[in-house]
Amino acid sequence: EEFFEVFVDTPLELAEARDPKGLYKKARAGILQNFTGIDSPYERPSSPDLTVFPQTYSVEEIVKKIIDNAEIQYT
Questions:
Q1: How many C-beta neighbours within 10 Å does residue 43 have?
Q2: pTM of this prediction?
Q3: CA distances, 50 to each of 17, 33, 37, 47, 72 (Å)
Q4: What is the pLDDT of residue 10?
């Protein structure tokens, strides 16, 4: 395999709440065009190697899951 696909399954509300640059706010105001999830469609990956949920797990737990699963995939 050339890469290990990780899907960070983040609800739109959480992404907006954690947006330090205010990009979602700008997109909702029409300042940014073609913003994924706002005025541009989003397509979930069809078969990622791993899906993680930031609303459920800490960053440390997610990193561990990614490393553990990547090691399994490539050993």
A1: 6
A2: 0.74
A3: 24, 30, 21, 8, 12
A4: 93
